[in-house]
Structure prediction request, 294 residues.
Amino acid sequence: MTPEDILSHPASVLTKEQRAFYFANGFVAVDGLIPPDWVRRLTARSNELLEQSRSVNHSNEAFDLGPTHSAEHPRVRRLRATVDRHPEFWEFACNSIFTDVAADLVGPDVKFHSAKLNYKWPGTGEVVHWHQDIPAWPHTNYSPVTLGVYLSPVTPEQGPLACIPGSHEGALFRHMDEEGNWTGTISENDLATVDLTSAAELTGSPGTLVAINCRAIHGSRANRSTEVRPLLLCVYSSADAFAWMPPPTPTTKTGAIVRGKPARMAHLDPRPCLVPPNWEKQGYGSIFSAQQGK
Ligand SMILES: O=C(O)CCC(=O)C(=O)O
Prediction:
């Protein structure tokens, strides 16, 4: 669906201004939108899984572990495929206010793509470099949106998500090095063409919703506070967007229609996208391992 088609359907959660902001800028943040009860439930599930990670020594299908992870100090960088880790994560993704927000931004027929929970730990210096999402998982159109919810307060010290306004309407950059190895990041040369000073930092209280279009340039600084920053992220698209390469982070729910009905026709956006590695063959670690060249 085009933004015009999407906007022709009434919204159920977001205001007219919030939707207009998203389509004009490529992102939007709404402070405290997700109700406290959901934040509490998701945090409880997250804490249980962090406890489980104490007995895990190597990254596996559930946990992407940071280099300093230990039983005493769990340092999970990413909980992978969260919707497969506990039914409550799937309930949140497929039948909650979150799903309603997805429909406000991709239209009434909503396809689920993937989910993860990123932890940004204090003292680890972990930075997410500037990147766009869609080069890793191209679709027939650019409706895919990453929806996030902060599970704790996020101030400028915690390394909030930061987005470049309007970059979703600009170029799609190559996220590979000279040899064609996937880096998951925009090169220095390409970044020189982007006005990074315009970056908007998306801070907010627990339950803050962030929505980032798949073409928008975004990243986040290191966490300089003393508190971890847990951020749950789910990707959705219009039902008429079809992935044309294997997904890097599949879940058992990838491709599920979570609102409305399946599409009978694909919507093809003429703007091209480079072909990423075939993740089914090559395997995918995480954005952290890709950006750190591991
Ligand atoms: O966790 C973050 O700060 C950034 C997450 C992100 O952009 C990603 O995982 O693609």
